[in-house]
Amino acid sequence: MKKQDKDVMILDADLGLSNIDILLNLSPRYNIQHVVNSEMTLKDIVVDGPHGIKIIPASSGVQELTALDEFQRLKLLEEFDAYDNATAVADVLLIDTAAGISGNVAFFCIAAQEIVIVTSPEPTAITDAYALIKVLFTRYQEKEFHVIVNSVKSPEEGFEVFKKLSMVTERFLNISLDYFFFFFLG
Questions:
Q1: Most confident range, picked from 12-16, 50-54, 132-136
Q2: I need a labelling partner for 93 at 20 to 30 A (CA). Which of 5, 118, 120, 146 fits?
Q3: Are residues 47 and 4 located together in one domain of the fold?
């Protein structure tokens, strides 16, 4: 997206087992734990990543961050509001959650303007994707989901996985999904 002249920020929302810093070869000094503990502001922990992308790093090996309470979640929302008001806000904020259906995952999904479910052809991944969609629909009344299928051998395989997931959600939840197709030239 940066190539499209958009300012992009990524929040590593796998708060207890973050890894975006490792994937991007970054060594952030501070992370989201410092914000949750009111030691720093969001602005203080943002780091520059490749291609001008801003990164909000999480922590790794901090179990208490895997289940934020309501106060901590509100603290994060307040920090994002303060960041928006004090800084030129990003055009796109990507929130990379942990896998699963934890309270943190649900919180970040319902806080997002758009929900993108990323899955793979593995049966367990497809089942997990459906479970997340089901929880977000039944508990939080979310009805719009985009799907990306990664780790595929071809675009056709990705679309087949999407069709299987889509058929199940239409049948049991009466909602339809949108397919995000990405084709990267390597």
A1: 132-136
A2: 120
A3: yes
